[in-house]
């Protein structure tokens, strides 16, 4: 009974108060400003913002929504993050409170300049995973999801670090951080944000077809890991959750 109560309470509080997204990024000791959906409108022309525009922190519910790529409206950023292939980038979230579901970092080439790259036409981008974090112990309902470890209840920022594959060829790329929250039965929530990267280094590679997907396109309600009821007793007690989509490309 307590467990049911706790789950219900969690559902209510998280839905009334809290959604969120990636707000800033760091590479080494350098900090880069993302777009604040509740910030001033002069952000639209601010020359230092590296993140594509998003104006609401509500989740996206539809796997076919064009805004699934880079949130809504997803306008290009003015600046980009210079990063050497093989180094780490950390996305910083504030007040993240959801606990169940996978987190996936993606990239796509901008096929030239990210400043003119339109992600609302899904055919333009070919996304590949550079890292993903899922269930790291315990069961699906109450286990040790990275998303749970990542959530902070004391106001300190939540940090998510991934590595740019070392052999990736230089160029302009988008990095897309996606949190999928599965605490509503059969109603997955998608929280994507994109930033502009200028990848440097001596890499010469780009992932092959088996690593590349379209967004929207990669997720569907036919996938049992996406269209999931984590409170269903059989599902709740499973100790394995296979993150769907293509394999991670590590370079
Ligand atoms: Cu939320």
TrEMBL record:
Cofactors (names): Cu(2+)
GO molecular function, one term: monooxygenase activity
Secretion signal, residue range per the UniProt entry: 1-18
Transmembrane segments: none
GO terms for biological process, alphabetical: cellulose catabolic process
Catalytic activity: [(1->4)-beta-D-glucosyl]n+m + reduced acceptor + O2 = 4-dehydro-beta-D-glucosyl-[(1->4)-beta-D-glucosyl]n-1 + [(1->4)-beta-D-glucosyl]m + acceptor + H2O
InterPro entries with a match to the protein in the record: AA9, AA9_LPMO
Gene3D superfamilies, sorted: 2.70.50.70
Function, as annotated: Lytic polysaccharide monooxygenase (LMPO) that depolymerizes crystalline and amorphous polysaccharides via the oxidation of scissile alpha- or beta-(1-4)-glycosidic bonds, yielding C1 and/or C4 oxidation products. Catalysis by LPMOs requires the reduction of the active-site copper from Cu(II) to Cu(I) by a reducing agent and H(2)O(2) or O(2) as a cosubstrate.
Protein name (database record): AA9 family lytic polysaccharide monooxygenase
Lineage, top ranks: Eukaryota, Fungi, Dikarya, Ascomycota, Pezizomycotina
């Amino acid at each position: 009974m307590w467990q049911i109560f706790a789950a219900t309470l969690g559902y209510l509080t998280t839905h009334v108060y809290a959604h969120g997204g990636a707000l800033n990024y760091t590479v080494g000791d350098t900090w880069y400003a993302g777009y604040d959906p509740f910030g001033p409108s002069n952000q639209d022309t601010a020359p230092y913002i590296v993140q594509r525009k998003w104006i609401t922190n509500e989740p996206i519910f539809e796997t076919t929504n064009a805004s699934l790529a880079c949130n809504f409206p997803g306008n290009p950023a003015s600046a980009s993050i210079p990063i050497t292939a093989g180094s780490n980038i950390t996305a910083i979230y504030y007040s993240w409170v959801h606990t169940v579901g996978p987190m996936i970092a993606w990239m796509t080439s901008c096929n030239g300049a990210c400043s003119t790259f339109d992600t609302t036409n899904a055919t333009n981008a070919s996304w590949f995973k550079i890292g993903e974090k899922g269930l790291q112990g315990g069961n699906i309902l109450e286990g040790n999801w990275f998303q749970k470890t990542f959530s902070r209840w004391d106001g300190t920022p939540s940090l998510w670090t991934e590595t740019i594959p070392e052999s990736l060829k230089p160029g302009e790329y988008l990095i897309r951080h996606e949190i999928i929250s599965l605490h509503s039965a059969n109603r997955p929530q998608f929280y994507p944000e994109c930033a502009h990267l200028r990848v440097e280094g001596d890499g010469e590679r780009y992932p092959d077809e088996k690593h590349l997907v379209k967004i929207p396109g990669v997720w569907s309600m036919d996938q049992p890991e996406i269209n999931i009821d984590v409170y269903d007793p059989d599902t709740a007690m499973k100790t394995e959750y296979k993150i769907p989509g293509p394999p991670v490309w590590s370079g």
